[in-house]
Amino acid sequence: MTVVMEKPERTETVETAAPVAGERRISRSLLLAAILVVWLVLFAVLRGRQTLSLAAADLTDLHRWINDIRDSVGANRNSNPLFLYFFNEIRLVIDNLVTFVQDLISQPSGDRPLPQIGWLGVVGLAGYVSWAVGNWRVALLAVAGFTFFGLQGLWQESMDTLALILCAVFVALLFAIPLGVLAGLSDRFNRILTPFLDLMQTMPTFVYLAPLTLIFLIGGASATIATVIYAAPPAIRITAHAIRSVPGTTVEAADSLGATRSQSLLKVLLPMSKRTVVMGVNQTIMAALAMVTIAALIDAPGLGKTVMQALQSLDVGTAFNAGLAIVVMAIVLDRVTTAASARAEAARRSDNRFAQWRRPLLAAGAVVAAVLVYLSHTYLWAAEFPGEGSTGSNIASAADDVTTWAQDNLSGLTNGFRDALTNGLLNPFQSLLTDSPWWLVGAVLIALGVVLGGWKAGVTTAVCVGLLIGTGLWSDAMTTLASTVVATVLVMLLGIVFGVWMGRSMLVDRVLRPSLDAAQVMPPFVYLVPFLALFGATRFTAIVAAIVYAVPVAIKIIADGVRAVPATTVEAATSAGCNTWQIITKVQLPMSRSALTLATNQGLIYVLSMVVVGGLVGAGALGYDVVAGFSQGQLYGKGLAAGLAIVLLGVMFDRITQAAARRTSA
Hints:
The chain is mainly alpha-helical. Helix content is 83%, strand content 0%. The protein has helices at 2-46, 61-76, 81-105, 119-133, 136-151, 155-185, 187-202, 205-216, 220-245, 248-256, 261-290, 303-313, 316-349, 358-378, 380-383, 390-434, 438-453, 455-470, 474-504, 506-521, 524-535, 539-563, 567-575, 580-591, 593-608, 611-615, 621-631, 636-665.
C-alpha cells in the first residue's frame, strides 16, 4: 500500500512541475510584450516631451569642461613635468622607431632620395623570412604579394603601411606576451586584467583617437599607440589561454625534477605554448592591419590615407585598388604567421629526406637575400620599382566601370530598397526612441535588461542609462541606438540564412568562408565608397556598411553552432519524418540557441564599432559628433562625450546579451 500511495504522489508532482516551466517561458514573452505595449501607449500620449534634444552646435557644461582641459593641456605641454619627462619621451621613442623603419623600407633616408632598402631587397627579405619561418609555398606567396604592390603603383604606400604595422606589432607584443604569461600563471591577475581587455576590445577605435592626439599630437606616435591599444588584447588573451592549457601533469613532472619557477616557464610552459602564442601574434597583426585606414584620420601614412582621400572625392577605383592592396597584405601576413605556428609540428611529423638540407639551404638563401638588399641599396633600378603601376590603373578603371554600370542600371532598385527600409522601419523606430520622454525609454531599457539578462544586467543598464544622460547627448544616442538595432536585425537575418546554409553543407562553407574572411579584413572605408555612389550620403549607407562589416562574424558563429548539433539528433529527426524546414526550425536552430545569442552579441558590437565611420557618410548622431570633434576645435568636448556614449551603449548591449546567453545555455 505504501508503494501504491507513493506513486500517485510522484506522478502528481511531475505533472505540476511541467506547467511551471512552461509558465516561466510564457511569462518572459508576456513581459516583453507588456513592456512594448505600455511603451507604445505612453509614447502616443507623451510624444515629443522631455526628449533632452541638443542642437548640433550646442554644448553642455561637461563639453565645455572637456574643452577647458584640452586648452590647458595645450598651453602647458612644454612646461608640465608629466609631459616633459613622460608623454613627450614616449612620443619621441615611438616616433624615432617609426621613422627608422620608414627610412629602411619606404621613405627617403637622409640625403638619399630613396629608402635604404629598395623594392628588390624588400621582396627578397620578405621571401626569405617567409621561407625561414614557414615553407617555400608561403615564400612564393609573399614574393608575389609584395611584387603586386609595385604593379598596383602603391609600393611606397604599402611599405608605409607595413612600417606602421611592424612598429605597432613590435610594441604590442613587447607588453602583450609578458602580460599574457602573467595572466596565464595567476588567476587573480587574469581577473584584474580581463575588464581592461574587454574595454579595449569593445571601445570603438575613434573614441580613443581624440585623447591620444591630445596627449601625443597628430602623427605616427598617436597612430602607433592607437593600433597597439586595438591589437594587443588578442595576443594577451591567447597567450594566457596557451599558458593555462599546458597539462598540469607536465608542470608537476618538471617541479618533481627540481625545476625552478623560471625554468618551468622557459623550458616547459613557453615551448609547449609556442604554437598558440604564434597564433596570438597572427591575430595581433590582423588587428593592426584593420587599423591602418582609421589611423589615417590622425595623419598615419600609408594605404589608409589613399583610401581616405578617395572617400572624400568619391573615387571608387582608387579606393578599391588601395583596399585590394590591404587585403593582399593581410593574406600574406596571415599565411606567413599561420605557417610559422604549424611548421615545427609539421617538421616533426614529416619524413621528408630534404629536411636535413634545410639549414644549408637557408644559409644560401640568406646570402641571396643579402645580395638583393645590397643591390637595392646601391642601384636605382633595384631601388625604385619599375613601371608606372598600369595594373593598378586597370583595376581602378574596372572598379569605376562596374560602379557606373550599377548606378545606371540598379539605381531604381537600390533607391527603392533604401526608401522602403528607411521609411518602413528605420524612421518609425527612431521616432519611437527619440520622441519618447527620456525617462520612459530609460525605464524600458532597464526593464528589458532585467527580463532578458537578470537583475545584474538591469543594474548595469541603469548605470549606463544614467551616464548616457550625463553626457548630454541622449537624443543622439537614441538615434544611434535605432540605426544599430535595425542593422543588427538585418545582420541576424542574413546570419541565420547563410549560417544555416554553411552549417549544413561543407561545400558551401568552403566556398563562402574565404569571402567572409576577406570582408572582415577589408577596411570599412573601402566599401563605403561604392555604397556612397549607389545610395548617397544617408543613414542607410552607414547601415549597409555596418551590415557588411558585422555579418561575416555572425554567419561564421551561427554556422559553427549549427554544425555542432549532433548528427545523431538530426538523423533521429529525419527518421521521424521531419522535412528539411522542420529539421532547421525545430532541431538545429533551437539547439544552436547559445550560438545565436553569441552572434547577436558580436553583431551588435561590430555594428556599434561602425558608428563613427557612419558619421562620415551622413549617419549623423553620435558618429557625426565624434567626427566633428576632430575637425572643429569648439566641438572637441562634445566629440569626446559622444565617444563615451558609444562605449556606454556597447557595454549595455554586451552585458545584456552575454547574460541572456548564459541564461539560455543554463
